[in-house]
Amino acid sequence: MNLHCKWILYTLTAFDADDVFGIIKESVEGTMGGNIFQQNRVDQWTSNVVELCLSQLSKLGKPFKYIVTCIIMQRNGAGLQTASSCFWDDTTDGSCTFKWENESMHCIVTVFGLAI
Amino acid sequence: MSDFAKEKAARLLKKRGSVSSLGSHDVKAKETAGKTKDSISTLSYIEEPGHHEDNPRPTVQMENTFQLAPYRRFPVLTVNDILKDVLSSYLQEEKYEAELCRQMTKTISEVIKARVKELMVPRYKIVVLISIGQLSDQNMRIGSRCLWDSSNDTFSSHSFKNSSLFALANVYAVYFE
Fold first, then answer.
1. What tens digit of pLDDT does each residue of B33-88 get?
2. Do B22 and B49 contact (CB within 8 A), yes or no?
């Protein structure tokens, strides 16, 4: 198969981190831009961010299953470490992590896409 | 094929083809920082050491198995026990320190992945996510949502706390149809 055809197959079937980045950025900035950390609203924010991401991702129409994780943490000088380990098919599956912060909080969103 | 799509494909191939550090799953390579009025956002790709080839493997066409559902479901309770076991054995006596916990998250995620793989549940893809954080007076919320087939796919989660740190382990199992 020549390179041209490989490119076509690759873009149609592999996880595209660029598209996903745009989607996550919009969801996070739309939900949390300009807000201060408020304990009673954090619940709503995490649900919002994750649900917005998921609905945009499903509109992409690709044959993927998605896992979206969101961590919102108050900025208090405390440390946080996150790691992930995945058992999947390297050629078709992928993940994308997006970090966002303002003066009062941190937000980390990770999207895993697994091909069906 | 349009030029735009070709350029995008070339960019993707180049990214996938680059080799990252050996041995550890460090977040590196591309970091695009954008500054808006009062917030900073960064994007990082997780580069895995598996992408060594210049040309990606073309998609493999699988033969039909005529199998509608998994023969063996994912054992959630067993995995819960594994998570409890691993987290308490690795973190029972530890104090939060940035360098130590960085290594610890990577180690623990590899260990959990290996133990879940030992269960040998066929046709399931596994994603393990570990977070270790320092206990101070901060408030934090961790949430996740998944778009999948809820009859076949599932997840398992466990959290652990001691006097100076907390840890959260999530395992997602996705059926490969």
1. 444 455 666 655 554 444 444 455 566 677 777 888 888 888 889 999 999 999 99
2. yes
> B138, B148, B161, B165: which to substitute to probe chain A, counting the most A Cβ within 10 Å?
B138
Interface size, chain A vs chain B, as Cβ–Cβ contacts under 8 Å: 222
Contact A113, A66 (CB under 8 A): yes
Q: Which residues of B touch A70 (CB under 8 A)?
A: 142-144
Q: What is chain B's length?
A: 177
Pick the CATH number of B76-137+146-175 from 3.30.1140.40, 2.30.40.10, 3.20.20.60, 3.40.50.300: 3.30.1140.40
- Closest chain B residue to A17 measured between Cα atoms? B45
CB burial of B66-94 (b: ≥16 within 10 Å; e: otherwise) equals eeeebeeebbeeebeebbeebbeebbeee
Cβ of A83 under 8 Å from any chain B Cβ? Answer: yes
> CA torsion sign, B3 to B7 to B12 to B13?
positive
A11 contacts B131? CB cut-off 8 A: no
Q: ipTM of the predicted structure?
A: 0.75
Say if A88 is an interface residue toward chain B (CB within 8 Å): yes
- For residue B45, the cross-strand partners are B28
pTM of the model: 0.71
Tally of CB atoms within 10 A around B26:
13
Domain assignments of chain B as residue spans, ordered by start:
76-137+146-175
